[in-house]
Amino acid sequence: MKIIFDVLHLYYLPQYLPVRDELIKAGHQVYFVFYKTSDPSLNEICQSVINKENLDCFLADDWSQALSFYLEQKASWIIFGNAVEQIDVIHSVSKTAMMLHGIGPKAVYYEMPKKPMTVRFVEGEYRLNRLKGMHPNDKFIDTGYAKLDPAIQSDNNGVNLSDLGLDPNKKTILYAPTFYPSSLECMPKNLPQMLSEYNLILKPHFFSLIKTKYKKHSKILKRWQQADNVYLCDVEDYNLVPFMGVADVMLSDASSAIFEFAALNKPVIWCDFYKLRWSYRGIFSYRFKQRVDSDIQYFEQVGWRIQSPTELVDTIVGSLKETDAKVQQRAKVISQLAGRVDGQSANRVVDYLTNN
């Protein structure tokens, strides 16, 4: 078979790569489509990742050129991380599958385009049943979350604390805020000093580092980066999974990273405080509720909830002394929201692609 992965954003890649590896093992042809941007430095970073991961790649100027490539290639399957236009045209030559890059609480997770793809791979029975109920005419297959396979198969995915300039004798905190709604601007200016007893790895969302809209995020992060106990991930550090492998505790907000880290059976702290735009506050607060799905309620069941940065230090100390009851509760909820956490999700995706 020939399979093509559509990489609209670089941060889609960690969900695709475990599947790519299994497809190649099975002897299939695998290609990737990346999109050029108006930012030369970002294009260079993408090219660097393409070279590092040894990807057979087509660089498209835009969706129109990508579509022409797909129609020309006539692949068995094209895998997307987002809804696309003219899906019916693609279906004249190829089947399509959707693999979302996150398992978080944003309402967009449950939205489906009017013209769906051939199949969508989802995580766990809870989400499978909910999507089937909302979209009874669409095809959903529970495979689990392929992005986590490498972390489940190995605790260390190539990240060494000493190489990051951090102290391997200290516990390590991973802070992975999303871009919006984000807790980043609410954190204390002296966050590294507050956490001086720990290593602090900062892994912000891709958009926080590249979009001018979030330049305040970049400014804050670079100030924190000056502390000796801090490592700030670069744009080229596009994959969160290796950093989850070396962390003892993770902090995040309205991000699927909370479920991802919890799925590794590690303590995670939900920073339930956000810097909201004026258009999401007061009489417009309904917009925030529309953006965040009710699945956010499960954050508190898999982790530790704090509603102010003042609670942070004590909660970190407490999270490192988790009870068996907390661990068992987390495992139960993760089974619902991430499905089987056994390192074999990519194999299940490949089995479906090859058998259909």
UniProtKB/TrEMBL annotation:
Domain of life: Bacteria
SUPFAM superfamilies xrefs: UDP-Glycosyltransferase/glycogen phosphorylase
InterPro entries in the cross-refs: Glycerophosphate_synth, TagF_C, Teichoic_Acid_Biosynth
PANTHER family, per the entry: TEICHOIC ACID GLYCEROL-PHOSPHATE PRIMASE, TEICHOIC ACID GLYCEROL-PHOSPHATE TRANSFERASE
Designated name of the protein: CDP-glycerol glycerophosphotransferase family protein
Biological source species: Psychrosphaera aquimarina
